[in-house]
Amino acid sequence: METPVKSLERAFRLAEAVGQAKDGATVTGLAEALALPKSTVHRLLSAFVQLGYMEQDEQSGRYRLTAKWLSLVTRFLADLDVRQAARRSLEALAEETGEVVHLVVLNDGEAVYIDKVEGKETIRMHSRIGHRAPVHCTAVGKTLLAYRSEDDIRTILRKHGLARHTPNTITDAQALIAHLAEVRQNGVAFDHEENEPGISCVAAPIFDHTGAVAAALSISGPTERMRPRLAALADRVREAGAAISARLGHDRSDRETVR
Amino acid sequence: METPVKSLERAFRLAEAVGQAKDGATVTGLAEALALPKSTVHRLLSAFVQLGYMEQDEQSGRYRLTAKWLSLVTRFLADLDVRQAARRSLEALAEETGEVVHLVVLNDGEAVYIDKVEGKETIRMHSRIGHRAPVHCTAVGKTLLAYRSEDDIRTILRKHGLARHTPNTITDAQALIAHLAEVRQNGVAFDHEENEPGISCVAAPIFDHTGAVAAALSISGPTERMRPRLAALADRVREAGAAISARLGHDRSDRETVR
DNA sequence: ATTCTTGTTCCATATTACGGAACCTTGTTC
DNA sequence: GAACAAGGTTCCGTAATATGGAACAAGAAT
Question: Do the Cβ atoms of B219 and B233 come closer than 8 Å?
Fold first, then answer.
């Protein structure tokens, strides 16, 4: 099937080839590799140069990508940072607790799972990477909400509502907002079977270098396994969140929880 | 001045606009922002989607960039990582030792200088960023070679030879390969006036998160200044290499030098 | 049910990208 | 120094494509 903009396809095939070339690429080499006339290759390369996405080495004549491509993906780089910074902590927590550990970000007023490590004792859960969950009745969601402005919180709740998932679900906006003050105070949020019957969860925030909450980290499991050690798990997830925050360049001196 | 491929310019203006939009962008919003007809915007967005560089949120209809853009810039990300991870160590070493400190990568079987910090006592040297040097008679070159397979080493030596630079240059391939085993054993490589008369050098490897050698780090200076403290400099450069490796996610438990 | 808004499709045509050929530059060989 | 080779660059007639106005489709709001 033809692409709707053929020259765009050609241009990206070219950019990909240049991006993979170790020391840049030549006009002739690219023409051969892509089965295109040299004049076509030259014109596309010149266009990339003019737009600032490529440069030509004066001596060798080779073309290579410039750092301008990075400006397109700054949001991805931020997410990559968070995942990379968090991964070893997720693995350590899962290993230590035996329960499933999640990494979650706020997106369009919902909680989106971006990473997950299962512990030995994990039972099947609904969570999977890419999955979206409500914020009002999940520990990660409440964590992500807690550090937003009250205006933001109200907007999100207006948009997504506070649907009852279990008898424990908080369905009153004002009650939830008051509860979120406790979440900030404790430095962790709990889900006492608010989202799913029989499942409990504890989550902590991950701050980035600007002091904003970049993600939330959680430990989840069946209530009968979680309840006896909930305080200890809260300590662990809070510490892990702080360690990841430090790796992201967060200065811990503000927002230190009252202990 | 007209760009040689007008639709490429339009396409990148579009991609930049989408990249900057916090929660993706709409067809109508982009058409307004870029003063383009909706059908033009829609066609370009569809082309990006087909190429895999954008996706459309099913519910909201908003377009956003995908992670595929990252595959274009993997080389930048890798080089950025190494340089950024190393820079503070280079500065610290130069400050502490007074000698010039280099960061070097292997490229097409040659040593390429990608960063350099001069100490107080530096005399003029041939090294400059972008400069290529032989691998058989430089400390950084021997470091970069030492962790390659013997097949790779032989291929590189066959391609580049073992030209004599000074009376101390190792010019026999078998002797060099045996010497490289010592380099691995010691965790550092020395250049005892093998590349340039009157100049000595000590270098250590920098490992990345996969365990591969991403770069080498070196301290160089006039032999009469280097010789009296060579063992101490070796310790320092080995430690700096290890610190940078850790920053790149290298697990130190393997390849730990015998001490 | 109607209206509004936004996304999507169609297609005649204006515009642009194409690519072959020629030219230019630099390096190599004799 | 001349000739040759290789690769980069430019030109321009034209084929191919991208354009964009109009219409349509779908969903939301009233």
Answer: yes
User: pLDDT (tens digit, 9 = 90+) per residue, B58-80?
Assistant: 778 889 888 788 777 766 666 66
The class (CATH top level) of A6-71 is mainly alpha
Assess B210–A contact: CB distance below 8 Å, yes or no: no
Rounded Cα distance, B72 and B52, in Å:
12
ipTM, interface predicted TM-score of the complex: 0.60
**B46 — contact with chain A (CB < 8 Å)?**
yes
Residues 21-60 of B with CB under 7 A from strand D: 36-40, 43-44
**Sign, CA torsion B122/B124/B130/B133:** negative
Helices (H), A53-161: 68-72, 74-97, 139-146, 150-160
Q: Which of A31, A22, A10 is nearest to A64 (CA)?
A: A22
DSSP state of B148: S
Residue for token digits 């990608």?
Answer: B114
pLDDT at residue A258 is higher than 60: no
Judged by CB atoms closer than 8 Å, whether chains meet at A72 and B16 is answered as: yes
**Model confidence over A5-60: pLDDT tens digits?**
889 999 999 999 998 887 789 999 999 999 999 999 999 999 999 998 998 887 78
Q: What is the tens place of the pLDDT at every residue in A139-157? A: 999 999 999 888 788 878 8
Q: In this structure, are residues A145 and A137 in contact, taking their beta carbons and an 8 Å threshold? A: no
Fold of B74-247: Beta-Lactamase (3.30.450)
* Distance (Å, whole) CA A48 – CA B5: 9
Cα distances (Å, whole numbers) of residue A128 to A113, A134, A226: 7, 14, 20
DSSP type of residue A94: H
Nearest CB to B65; choose among A46, A47, A72: A72
User: Would you kindly state where each structural domain of chain B is located, as residue ranges?
Assistant: 6-71, 74-247
